[in-house]
């Protein structure tokens, strides 16, 4: 199968969106960490409606779980590429994968702080 670039603006964008949706579906259905994080995002949306959070809280919450899912997706891509290039354990590949996982940790920590800032006052 040979790749053919679509030079048409509209159909090219539609194809790009299709590839993105296909990738998001693959992430949500095959990667356990993404499954967990996506489930938490759905629960936060439900909680947001239940607690009637403000517009600003919706923005922060949406950015927080979008950031985590985005970084986790890039981490998964880095891991898949690294495993493809060097399937056996290698110190340098492990180092690269650890750095990518650390990026997820930073994003997740920030998202937890945002969640606590939004929801702890609702319980107090």
TrEMBL record:
Keywords, alphabetical: ATP-binding, Cell membrane, Kinase, Lipid biosynthesis, Lipid metabolism, Magnesium, Membrane, Metal-binding, Nucleotide-binding, Phospholipid biosynthesis, Phospholipid metabolism, Transferase, Transmembrane, Transmembrane helix
Cofactor note: Mn(2+), Zn(2+), Cd(2+) and Co(2+) support activity to lesser extents.
Family to which this protein belongs: Belongs to the bacterial diacylglycerol kinase family.
Catalytic residue list: 72
GO cellular component, one term: plasma membrane
Residues at which a divalent metal cation binds: 31, 79
Entry's Gene Ontology BP terms: phospholipid biosynthetic process
CDD domains in the record: UDPK_IM_like
Principal subcellular localization: membrane
Membrane-protein topology: Multi-pass membrane protein
EC number: 2.7.1.66
Binding site for ATP: 31, 79, 88-90, 97-98
Record field: transmembrane: 34-53, 99-120
Gene: dgkA
Gene3D superfamilies for this protein: 1.10.287.3610
Cellular localisation: Cell membrane
Protein name, UniProt field: Undecaprenol kinase
InterPro entries: DAGK, DAGK_sf, UDPK
Organism: Flavobacterium sangjuense
Residues annotated as binding substrate: 72
Gene Ontology molecular function: any one: metal ion binding
Cofactor(s) named in the record: Mg(2+)
Enzyme class: transferase
């Amino acid at each position: 199968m040979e790749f053919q670039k679509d030079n048409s603006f509209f159909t090219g964008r539609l194809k790009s969106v299709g590839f993105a949706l296909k990738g998001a579906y693959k992430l949500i259905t095959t990667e356990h960490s993404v499954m967990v994080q996506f489930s938490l995002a759905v629960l936060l949306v439900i909680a947001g409606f239940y607690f009637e959070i403000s517009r600003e809280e919706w923005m922060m919450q949406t950015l927080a779980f979008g950031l985590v899912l985005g970084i986790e997706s890039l981490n998964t891509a880095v891991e898949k590429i690294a495993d493809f290039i060097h399937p056996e354990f290698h110190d340098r590949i492990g180092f690269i994968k650890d750095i990518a996982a650390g990026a997820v940790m930073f994003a997740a920590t920030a998202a937890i702080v945002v969640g606590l800032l939004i929801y702890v006052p609702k319980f107090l």
